[in-house]
Amino acid sequence: SDVGSQKDRVVTEEEWLEKWEMGNIGFHKEEGHPLLQKYLDVLLNGRSGLRIFFPLCGKAVEMKWLTDMGHSVVGVEISEQAVKEFFSEHSLPYCEEPVTEISGAKVFQSTSGNISLYCCSIYDLSSSIVGKFDGVWDRGALVAVNPCDRQRYASLMISLVEKNSSYLLVTVSYDPNKHKGPPFYVPESEIKSLFG
């Protein structure tokens, strides 16, 4: 198959946490992603004051960039270290509260109120907890999700977006027989079957 040996590969939450602890975060970009800058007009579609979702956000600098433009950002990340590093690296004061609907989860919110980062499994979220979004910036989430969880992930993402939302998705193209992932190879045909 065109996904090679990746089909059955599973990366655990513990492995992701260890990547953050060890500083093995080559997926993090210190500069804003050039594709977000290039396609920003597609994401915003002439609208202002949007709610934009960052799945598996890490400490993405684009979150601050978009809030500086007047949008609000909600992210989800399993690593509390990543979330705290985001706020400290941008010198943003925040408060931390438990998420009553999700056992063990916390939400870190900037005191300005325009950035809310949930520290939990993305699969614990629902629109009843985080609401719906006008836009999604998926730079490294779909390609990080275990291949066996892609349908679950796509269904969740579809449930979190408004009807007129914009969804920017970045994937990587390579021979999946030569790299075990992540990032995982997601063929265009599968993106179409997942998202329509």
UniProtKB/TrEMBL annotation:
It comes from the Eukaryota. InterPro entries: SAM-dependent_MTases_sf, Thiopurine_S-MeTrfase, TPMT. Keywords: Cytoplasm, Methyltransferase, S-adenosyl-L-methionine, Transferase. S-adenosyl-L-methionine binds at residues 16-27, 56, 77, 121-122, 139. GO terms for cellular component: cytoplasm. This is thiopurine S-methyltransferase. PANTHER family: THIOPURINE S-METHYLTRANSFERASE. The keyword Disulfide bond does not apply. One of its GO terms (molecular function) is thiopurine S-methyltransferase activity. The keyword Zinc does not apply. The lineage of its organism: Eukaryota, Metazoa, Chordata, Craniata, Vertebrata. Belongs to the class I-like SAM-binding methyltransferase superfamily. TPMT family. One of its GO terms (biological process) is methylation. It catalyses: S-adenosyl-L-methionine + a thiopurine = S-adenosyl-L-homocysteine + a thiopurine S-methylether. Its EC number is 2.1.1.67. SUPFAM superfamilies: S-adenosyl-L-methionine-dependent methyltransferases (SSF53335). Pfam families: TPMT. PROSITE patterns: SAM_MT_TPMT. It is found in: Cytoplasm.
